[in-house]
Amino acid sequence: MNTLNKTLALIALASSSAAFAATDFDTLDVDGSGTISQSEASADAELMSKFTELDTDGNGELSKEEFSNA
User: Is residue 46 within 8 Å of 53, Cβ to Cβ?
Assistant: First the structure.
């Protein structure tokens, strides 16, 4: 059920018009994992366009340090 709640929260964020203006790490880190996944980054088109470049360790997630280079 917890995964379902996280998925629904992510869908709600992605469908929100405010989500596309989101530039705050904590706002984009919907699941509170301390990283931004590609799914979470998809809420911000500009961030998504730079995701691969910013993901310097290639793990498919952005740390706060990697995000700060945006």
Answer: no
Contact (CB, 8 A) for 62 and 55? yes
Those residues with Cβ within 8 angstroms of residue 37's Cβ, 6 or more apart along the chain or in another chain: 31, 60, 61
pLDDT, position 41: 95
CB atoms within 10 A of CB 16: 12
Between strands 36-37 and 61-62, the pairing is antiparallel
Give Cβ neighbours of residue 50 (< 8 Å, ≥ 6 apart): 70
Give the whole-angstrom CA distance, residue 43 versus residue 63.
16
Write out pLDDT tens, residues 21-56.
457 999 999 999 999 999 999 999 999 999 999 999
pTM (predicted TM-score):
0.67
